[in-house]
């Protein structure tokens, strides 16, 4: 229960910050994709199941705030959380840059997938050039924010993990 | 065995969530605006709108500060020498300018309301779209204030957009710079009509203009308004920036500079009665 509340609070905070503070602090016109970043970090730390659930919840919350077909962000982030969580299991490098690289790559892939699904559903009127530009810039923005966001989420994850009891 | 069971559990969860997403997309398409998801959207807007209101009130100075840093990069060197000396005065001046701007915006809103003879609800912008693919703002007025879907929204400068989502205390306004936005418009001098479409942070595009018409630089473009349309006639949209069409084209394409500065939109008026 504590875990669910913690993840909900993190996703909600990301959502509100993105639509208030970060809506005005843009990088060459692009906002960061904070909900994507939160999903990637949760998947990175907790594995594919938690990543997929966090992605679905965050994506659904984003969808209901947009005037676009609902469910596309949820689908995107569910698959992104699962993919990042699964890939993480096969990467064993101790490099501190790994979360930054994963956040950048994951964000770019997620935004492009979102754009592709929106296009197939007839909802993307901005064109491919704009889509690639946003994917690149928001990936860069998320990479810059990862060193700030990652430790916070890791701390919350550790604090909300159920304590293991060993019986002898 | 445990590892295999865990992997199967993960796959089951992911497949369920993907199915749920696909069902949501289908329901949204089939249900439209009266479907079960529309009510869920309004509920989500109410919750997040209240949070946005609180957060934007508290963090607005922080956002302005960050935003300022991004914009004044080119002036940084010049300002550095004087910064220490004028810091206190600048802070006071900033506060004064903010109050003055707020006053100016509210006054121009009032003037517009009186000059166009509209009845409306004044509202403050409390949030912007969470997406990089949608240009909208959240305002602190909703159905309890008389705001309804498709009502036009203006500011002191001119046309802002129209309401696309309404919750009890908040609403979402699609801006005219959104590529999905289209406004029936008229060139003031020639009276020629066309369709103004959003083009993100670039100039608006006025399409379907008669190629034989002479378009003047800085000519005003206003809403043309038609029976049953969203926007009433005569609201300023912007000014002609330049003509984009090539010779031989069937229609003229005109670039229109928006009259409203969407990067610093703070107060708006929702037109409830025309």
Give keywords:
heterodimer, A: 168 residues, mainly alpha, 7 helices, 74% helix, 0% strand, B: 274 residues, alpha+beta, six-stranded antiparallel β-barrel, 39% helix, 27% strand
Can you offer a commentary on this structure?
The model of chain A has no long low-confidence stretch (mean pLDDT 87). In chain A, helix 1 packs antiparallel against helix 3 (34-46) and helix 3 (34-46) packs antiparallel against helix 4 (48-63). Chain A is 74% helix and 0% strand. With 168 residues, chain A is an all-alpha fold. In chain B, a hairpin with a 6-residue loop joins strand 7 (193-197) and strand 8. Chain B has 274 residues and is an alpha+beta fold. Chain B contains 3 helices and 12 strands; from the N terminus they run αααββββββββββββ. Chain B has a 6-stranded antiparallel beta barrel with strand order 1-2-5-4-3-12. Chain B has a 6-stranded antiparallel β-barrel with strand order 6-7-8-11-10-9. In chain B, 39% of the residues lie in helices and 27% in strands. The interface between A and B is large, with 54 and 53 residues.
Question: How would you briefly describe this protein structure?
Answer:
The complex is a heterodimer of chains A (168) and B (274). Chain A is mostly helical and 168 residues long.
Topology:
The complex is a heterodimer of chains A (168) and B (274).
Chain A: H1 2-19, H2 21-24, H3 34-46, H4 48-63, H5 72-88, H6 98-120, H7 128-160
Helix pairs in contact in A: 1-3, 1-4, 1-7, 3-4, 3-5, 3-6, 3-7, 4-5, 5-6, 6-7
Chain B: H1 2-31, H2 36-71, H3 76-116, E1 119-128, E2 136-139, E3 152-154, E4 159-166, E5 171-175, E6 182-187, E7 193-197, E8 204-209, E9 220-223, E10 236-243, E11 252-258, E12 267-273
Antiparallel strand pairs in B: 1-2, 1-12, 2-5, 3-4, 3-12, 4-5, 6-7, 6-9, 7-8, 8-11, 9-10, 10-11
């Amino acid at each position: 229960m504590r875990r669910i509340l913690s993840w909900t609070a993190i996703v909600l905070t990301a959502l509100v910050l993105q639509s208030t503070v970060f809506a005005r602090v843009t990088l060459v016109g692009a906002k960061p994709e904070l909900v994507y970043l939160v999903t990637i970090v949760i998947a990175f730390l907790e594995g594919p199941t938690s990543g997929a659930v966090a992605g679905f919840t965050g994506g659904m919350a984003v969808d209901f705030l947009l005037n676009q077909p609902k469910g596309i962000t949820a689908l995107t982030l569910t698959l992104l959380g699962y993919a990042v969580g699964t890939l993480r299991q096969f990467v064993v490098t101790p490099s501190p840059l790994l979360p930054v690289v994963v956040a950048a790559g994951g964000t770019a892939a997620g935004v492009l997938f979102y754009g592709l699904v929106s296009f197939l559903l007839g909802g993307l009127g901005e064109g491919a050039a704009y889509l690639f530009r946003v994917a690149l810039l928001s990936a860069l923005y998320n990479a810059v924010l990862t060193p700030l966001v990652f430790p916070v989420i890791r701390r919350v994850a550790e604090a909300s993990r159920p304590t293991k009891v060993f019986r002898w | 065995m445990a590892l295999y069971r865990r992997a199967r559990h993960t796959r089951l969860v992911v497949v369920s969530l993907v199915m749920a997403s696909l069902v949501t997309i289908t329901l949204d398409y089939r249900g439209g605006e009266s479907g079960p998801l529309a009510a869920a959207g309004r509920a989500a807007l109410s919750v997040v709108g209240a949070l946005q209101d609180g957060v934007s009130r508290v963090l607005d100075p922080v956002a302005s500060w960050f935003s300022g840093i991004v914009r004044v990069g080119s002036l940084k060197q010049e300002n550095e020498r004087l910064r220490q000396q004028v810091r206190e005065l600048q802070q006071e001046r900033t506060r004064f300018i903010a109050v003055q701007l707020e006053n100016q915006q509210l006054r121009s809103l009032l003037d517009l309301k009186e000059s166009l003879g509209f009845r409306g609800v004044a509202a403050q912008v409390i949030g912007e779209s969470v997406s990089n693919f949608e240009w909208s703002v959240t305002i602190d007025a909703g159905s309890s204030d008389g705001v309804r879907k498709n009502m036009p929204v203006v500011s002191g400068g001119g046309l802002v957009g129209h309401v696309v989502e309404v919750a009890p205390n908040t609403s979402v306004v699609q801006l005219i710079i959104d590529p999905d936005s289209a406004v029936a418009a008229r060139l003031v001098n020639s009276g020629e009509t066309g369709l103004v479409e959003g083009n993100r942070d670039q100039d608006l595009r006025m399409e379907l203009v008669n190629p034989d018409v002479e378009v003047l630089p800085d000519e005003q473009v206003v809403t043309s308004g038609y029976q049953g349309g969203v926007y009433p006639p005569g609201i300023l949209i912007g000014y002609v920036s330049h003509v984009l069409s090539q010779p031989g084209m069937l229609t003229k394409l005109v670039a229109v500079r928006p009259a409203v500065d969407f990067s610093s939109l703070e107060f708006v008026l929702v037109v409830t009665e025309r």
